[in-house]
Amino acid sequence: MNLWRISRLDAVRAGIAGTRAVAVRAAAKTLFDAGGQRVLPAVVQQAVRGAVEREASRVLAAVGVMGRALEGRGAQAVAVRGVRAAGRQIFRGVGTAAAAGALVDGGWALVQAVKRMRAGSMTRKQAAAHVAREAGTGAAATAAGTAAAALLVAATGGVATPAVFMVAAAASIGAKMGLDAWIERARSVPNARPTPLLQPQAGS
Length: 204
Fold this sequence. Notes:
The protein is an all-alpha fold. The chain has one domain. It is about 75% helix and about 0% strand. It contains 7 helices and no strands. The protein has helices spanning about 10-25, 25-35, 40-60, 65-75, 85-120, 125-155, 160-190. It starts with 7 loop residues before the first helix and ends in a 16-residue tail after the last helix.
């Protein structure tokens, strides 16, 4: 992922996913202690944690202040007691991330849609579909980023806070790109004409 090519909207969405992931890190660790540690062998857990933390350190090297701030925030997190409480906290965190993602992408799409309607290049129906689509993919992408980081902690243990943030951010950006690409392909399919498998023979 090239951090210098992402848009401001991507960065905002990624920041939301990362922040929510850090907030539910303690809850995810509770799930790890309660049984998630048996999902993967200890050697694999250590390898995954090491790889993720090294990559996060490399990416955050240019913004070391962010790394220290995240570590401080993680140190203040209150341990979550009980698997049910941890699950509820993670669920709320993912839901909050989804709502924020929908607000960010839907709000920006609304601004774009209003400009296009005024210019006459978009109808009300098209504008509504555009806003709904962007809000939906924004919500899904932000939720996916937070959930991915929580799952990483639940399966591998005490991943460092900057790494949790970076995993959520990267997963959010990747999910949005994937959803956008999938929607574009789906929209182009109805206009495509299938190639006949058998060509008619001359004189037939």
